[in-house]
């Protein structure tokens, strides 16, 4: 089977409005309005045209298909990930992590597009370049730059995507996080009866943190701080921990 040819909206020349028609920015804004209101499954070129009061010709003048439209709206999500141009590695990584978490949380439909559509738009590439540049300036070298960036991106999305997916499921169930917690509590107690250590931790967490969303924010803060502390230990000139890990690997025959 031959591979499907890859195409991207970013490889095509941007066109202006056709015959006093809609601009690309108008189309993207309207698409995001529909997505934020009704989710990804509700978006179609027909519905978008009706929302804008325009025919299909005005839409297809700017995008060849729905996938190209989604590339554009996803880059608008990345527009919320603002990394200052002169930020050091720690502040750049922090800005990316909180910016990406906030953007995905604000636009929960984007969860199912991350990793599916290529991030080739100017906002996504600007964020990537600034994050990579900050790590390079800190002293990370060669492939270590890629690994450091990947660690920050992977942690951010790994912690955020399941949370947003859960919130999507809660919304679809017609309740909120507190209501879902109340519904799940008795089930967890019943099923977890044979796991006393887990249940003791669950009960303690329920007592000390009554707001589930706040607990998730604290958990994100803790994980990000731990990750950045680990990256700081790997900056050239501060590699004692790295050398110890290497020696331990040699002792155990892992290298």
UniProtKB/TrEMBL annotation:
Residues 21-81 form the HTH tetR-type domain. One of its GO terms (molecular function) is transcription cis-regulatory region binding. Residues 11-22 have a biased composition (Basic and acidic residues). PROSITE patterns: HTH_TETR_1, HTH_TETR_2. Pfam families: TetR_C_1, TetR_N. Residues 44-63 bind DNA. Signal peptide: none annotated. One of its GO terms (biological process) is negative regulation of DNA-templated transcription. InterPro entries: DNA-bd_HTH_TetR-type_CS, Homeodomain-like_sf, HTH-type_TetR-like_transc_reg, HTH_TetR, Repressor_TetR_C, Tet_transcr_reg_TetR, Tet_transcr_reg_TetR-rel_C_sf. Residues 1-22 are annotated as: Disordered. Keywords: DNA-binding, Repressor, Transcription, Transcription regulation. PANTHER family: HTH-TYPE TRANSCRIPTIONAL REGULATOR RUTR, TRANSCRIPTIONAL REGULATORY PROTEIN. This is HTH tetR-type domain-containing protein. It comes from Planotetraspora thailandica.
């Amino acid at each position: 089977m031959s591979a499907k040819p890859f195409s991207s909206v970013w490889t095509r020349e941007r066109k202006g409005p056709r015959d006093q028609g809609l601009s690309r920015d108008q189309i993207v804004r309207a698409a995001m309005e529909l997505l934020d209101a009704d989710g990804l499954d509700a978006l179609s070129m027909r519905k978008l045209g009706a929302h804008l009061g325009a025919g299909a010709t005005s839409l297809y003048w700017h995008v060849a298909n729905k996938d190209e439209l989604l590339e554009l709206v996803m880059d608008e999500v990345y527009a919320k990930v603002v990394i200052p141009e002169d930020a050091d590695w720690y502040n750049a990584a922090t800005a990316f992590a909180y910016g990406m978490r906030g953007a995905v949380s604000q636009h929960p439909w984007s969860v199912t597009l991350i990793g599916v559509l290529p991030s080739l738009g100017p906002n996504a590439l600007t964020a990537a370049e600034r994050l990579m540049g900050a790590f390079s300036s800190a002293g990370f070298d060669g492939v270590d730059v890629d690994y450091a960036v990947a660690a920050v991106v992977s942690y951010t999305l790994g912690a955020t995507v399941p949370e947003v997916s859960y919130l999507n499921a809660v919304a679809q169930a017609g309740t909120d996080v507190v209501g879902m917690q109340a519904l799940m509590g008795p089930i967890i107690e019943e099923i977890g009866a044979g796991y006393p250590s887990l249940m003791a931790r669950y009960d303690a967490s329920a007592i000390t943190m009554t707001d589930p969303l706040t607990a998730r924010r604290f958990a994100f803060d803790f994980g990000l701080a731990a990750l950045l502390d680990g990256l700081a230990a790997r900056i050239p000139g501060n590699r004692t921990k790295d050398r110890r890990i290497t020696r331990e690997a040699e002792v155990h025959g892992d290298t």
